[in-house]
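User: Reviewer 2 asked us to show a designed sequence for the structure in our supplementary figure. I'm pasting the structure tokens here. Could you produce the per-position amino acids so we can include them in the response letter?
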């Protein structure tokens, strides 16, 4: 039974694709739970960009394309548009918390989607008052 929706930061997908240790396995487990309908999740279109870029940088282009296809074809995962409302909100978060712009866009996306929390290894999200962060291992 799904009780709430979570927001998956790009690093969940990057660890899933590139890390063969505990963080990678836990990230893959979270994504499997989303695919099985046990977890309702959303992520920004930025996550797609960050995942494909990271995999292409560390591996081959064909593997980057496969990783991109996985995120696009994950049942139960809502890919959120980066639109003018999100960007306006991101600028407000940037001004208030001095995050980097990508983190501000991710945070604005999570807040607009009504996510319960952001799953991320990025402690910069801990400064936000509007939404809390849980590490991959805590999820």
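Assistant: Here is a per-position design you can include in the supplement:
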């Amino acid at each position: 039974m799904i009780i709430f929706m979570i927001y998956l930061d790009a690093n969940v997908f990057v660890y899933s694709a590139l890390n063969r240790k505990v963080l990678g396995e836990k990230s893959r487990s979270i994504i499997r739970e989303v695919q099985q309908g046990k977890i309702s999740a959303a992520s920004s279109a930025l996550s797609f960009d960050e995942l494909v870029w990271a995999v292409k940088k560390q591996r081959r282009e064909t593997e980057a394309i496969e990783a991109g296809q996985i995120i696009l074809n994950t049942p139960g995962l809502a890919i959120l548009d980066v639109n003018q409302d999100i960007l306006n909100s991101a600028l407000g978060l940037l001004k208030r918390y001095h995050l980097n712009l990508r983190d501000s866009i991710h945070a604005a996306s999570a807040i607009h989607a009504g996510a319960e929390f952001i799953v991320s290894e990025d402690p910069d999200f801990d400064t936000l008052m509007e939404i809390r962060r849980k590490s991959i291992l805590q999820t």
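For the response letter, you might also mention the following. The beta strands are 5-8, 40-44, 77-80, 117-119, 132-134. The two ends are 16 Å apart (CA to CA).
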